[in-house]
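ping. complex inputs:
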Amino acid sequence: MRTSQFFFTTLKEAPADAEVVSQKLMLRAGLIKRVAAGIYTWMPLGLKVLRKVEAIIREEMNHAGALELLMPAVQPAELWQESGRWTQYGPELLRFKDRHQRDFVIGPTHEEVITDVVRRDVKSYRQLPINLYQIQTKFRDEIRPRFGVMRGREFLMKDAYSFHTSYADLEREYQNMFETYSRIFTRLGLTFRAVAADTGAIGGTGSHEFHVLADSGEDAIAYCPDSDYAANVELAEGVVPEKSRGAATQSLAKVPTPGKTACADVAALLDLPLNRTVKAIAVVNEEESGKRFALLLLRGDHDLNEIKTSKIEGLSPFRFATEAEIVEFLGCKPGYIGPVGVDFGKVRVIADRVVAAMSDFVCGANEEDFHLTGVNFGRDVPEPEVADIRNVLAGDASPDGKGALEICRGIEVGHIFQLRTKYAQALECCYLDEQGKTQVMEMGCYGIGVTRIVGAAIEQGHDERGIIFPAAIAPFEVCIVPMAYAKSDAVKTASDQLYADLKAAGIDVVLDDRNERPGVLFADMELIGVPHRLVVGERGLASGQIEYKGRCDAEAVMVARDQVLTFLREKLCCVPAC
RNA sequence: CGGAGUGUAGCUCAGCCCGGUAGAGCACUGCGUUCGGGACGCAGGGGCCGGAGGUUCGAAUCCUCUCACUCCGACCA
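pong. complex structure:
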């Protein structure tokens, strides 16, 4: 490709509303253009990157035995009504009516359609297992699209669905996909980690997320550097402290804490560490059967994990209590509430595992402007229910007992689920087994956010000059930057020849033949993230040499003209650009 | 959905308080000089100042409504 023949649109300044680095750089490099909130056009340069990502995914999926198909983006409401998600899914599901007033959706995912496909054509155990995938545009009407292609509304996704005659076979394929995903992200040149995940709204049991590690990631990941344990913080288990609860050494005392509603303020006032305090969070479970009020106890420096909490029996769904409800049940304004003196018959008290092991702690007195010190379970307050309801923190013991947890941030680029029979059951996706008996299929589903990968790659690889793409997905592998292409015949001839040679060698090369000053050429090639650069100038040509510089190299090196191809080949296949 | 903010040239922004026929830098076009790290000169093109209504002799500027976008929160995954 010659830049003069390409649609090349770089910007010196990023649009003011771009928030994250990848978004700014993608807009500056002209990879994408914003069309509406969370909706982008992929320009030719960006599409080259996207297609390279797709190609790697497609190759590895095919290699893993999956079969590609293409389902419609537009889906009839009937299928969603049949699975029950027509009502379960919120406004995130984009619905519309056609000219006959029939309801349709623009698919945010394709479980319904694929299950329909399979139930129509798969009748026998002999046709199973099967793994079908597509690379397709999805639409999720996010409340707040942001971060460019990282959380867009329209995005490209690879989604695969597998069907099995047994859970054991589903587990086998799940493992197959786990390994396939690891190969895909490795080939893409990304630093990633597979983490145990919550199964969320899609439902099912086993689930792993694949995260590209980056500080700007939206998800917090707890991992153990000393083992392979890694889990989304939403799911990471807070383990029971090894030490059992200490004996009570203090007597219960009421202390004035006017205006101190936060644990940190109370701790500071009493000159105690924050981890001696206990905060109480009032929640309400409201269903047709009535309203139930509960008090959740957490150590002052811990945060509530709503996902874990919502899994407590009888508490789901829960919401935070209103001030009026708190006054109604505890007779006290929020900020000073605690478990002491509450009627355990009316209020359910659930302590985090860590709190349950505390003694002589500080908590609200259920009286405005007062807290209690020296509080002990069993003596001052009945033993509460105990559950794991907090977010783990860095330094916590790893649940596998092999060291301490660290927390890092990640961008979720892949997610694999064992759906089991959730959709197959709802949509009656069945087959006949060896005995001729009707059985429901076991299902797995496996997604990769294709567009998000491009953003994630840039979050992971960039510097002040622009994008540093992994070689596997860079828009071009090599650029040739001629010094005065329009002026010097020697440079022009040598550049054209080099370009032809590299192209003939199957290298994805771009020749920047624009009649611009060198600074412009250098800056643009660096901005768009081309990993390898060859500079052709009269200076080097005089001694039969071409200058080479990797995108991250500090210094350029001179390479003999007739050695360039060999030199480059080695760089391209063996050495990462950075 | 609640709170805050922003809409002026393709991009970044000034002008708005204090009404008087629309500006800068970058980008773009032409000519010339320049040419190994985002050059310079001269000459140009480009805007219904988000939209509608109102106040006024006169509105980018003041008022009302509306739309879009952004941020924080809630929600969702």
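The domain at 476-574 of chain A is CATH 3.40.50.800 (Rossmann fold).
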